[in-house]
Amino acid sequence: MKLSTRGQYGLYAMYYLAIHKDEGPKSLQSIASIGVPKQYLEQLLGNLRRAGLVGTVRGSQGGYQIARDPAEISVLDVIDAMEGPLELSECMTDEKTCDRSCQCPVRRVWQKLTDSINQELSGIKLSDMLRVPDECEAIQHGGE
Known about the structure:
- There is one protein chain.
- The protein is mainly alpha-helical.
- The chain has a single domain (5-140), classed as Orthogonal Bundle (Arc Repressor Mutant, subunit A).
- Helices cover 52% and strands 6% of the residues.
- The protein has helices spanning 5-19, 28-31, 38-50, 75-83, 90-93, 105-123, 126-129, 134-140; strands at residues 54-57, 63-66.
- It has a two-stranded antiparallel ribbon with strand order 1-2.
- Helix 1 packs across helix 3 and helix 1 (5-19) crosses helix 4.
């Protein structure tokens, strides 16, 4: 399983907007500084806007801004907006893909893993990403 660039870049964009949430709307150009091509970023921000995670402001001082407090937005919210619901197997979303889905032991494994991943991602908020981990804090301060 590998997260696509849509999910990765969407999370980078949301992280950028969370960091700069008190600075007003951010231009597409400034958000693109995270390393996402502007045309691609515009599509991603559209998905995030439709999901209610990003707002837009029109005008010369306009741009994009986070729509809710970072403590209210989970990584799962962002991934769902970018990729759709996370499912490890096609049989998870459509039982008709396999005539044995109800009694399939492998499907139960995929379901358990899917549920665990979704639970973990829903527990990580953008506000958690804004905190510097303790081990990085020591490195930033010269190992003090």
